[in-house]
Specification:
single chain, about 180 residues, alpha+beta, Metallo-beta-lactamase, Chain A, 4 helices, about 15% strand, globular
Length: about 180
């Protein structure tokens, strides 16, 4: 399959301003979780996908293909440079400690309370924290099929000679897969 982006209808570039109906959105490159991660600033709200999470959960893992703790640190710092009152909508939440699932916070709350990027953590300390934490995580159970679908813009793999499309799962040693 193509790996040059041609499988997608349109690729949004970092810094690009585009319309969603009547709304103006600005693309903010926020790599780290993966190299292609993007956040979107719409008015006084930012949709951060898998970069920063609710303050009590911190930041996204960086051990996926092409992920980088250093890049995520830079991305997080870019996001927390937005005005404190900016509403932050996270991609998902884990409800640590039994807390109710949440989806919204503010840049001010992230600066003050984010357990990974608050308190002026240095790049070196963040990278150490993130890499240590990531090394203890198992791969999500659906990561292998998800990558195969996501890289094809949501389409199934091309059919084999028998006309059937297959998702392939490696059977040899794949670190973190259980």
């Amino acid at each position: 399959f193509p790996c040059d982006g041609s499988q997608f209808d349109y690729l949004i570039n970092p810094g690009e301003i585009f319309q969603i109906g009547e709304l103006e959105a600005t693309a903010i490159s926020t790599p780290g979780h993966t190299p292609a991660c993007m956040s979107y600033l719409i008015g006084s709200s930012v949709f951060v996908g898998d970069s920063i999470f609710m303050p009590d959960f911190g930041t996204a893992r960086c051990d996926f293909p092409g992920g980088s703790a250093k890049d995520l640190y830079t991305s997080a710092k870019k996001l927390v440079a937005l005005p404190d009152e900016t509403r932050v909508f996270v991609g998902h939440d884990y409800g640590p400690g039994g807390r109710a699932i949440a989806w919204e916070t503010t840049i001010g709350a992230e600066k003050q309370s984010n357990i990974h990027i608050g308190d002026g953590i240095s790049l070196d300390d963040f990278v150490k924290l993130r890499e240590t934490r990531d090394s203890q995580l198992n791969l999500p159970g659906m990561i292998i099929p998800s990558i195969q679908i996501n890289m094809r813009a949501g389409k199934l793999p091309y059919p084999s000679e028998n006309g059937v499309s297959y998702l392939k799962t490696p059977i040899n040693n794949f670190p973190g897969l259980k």
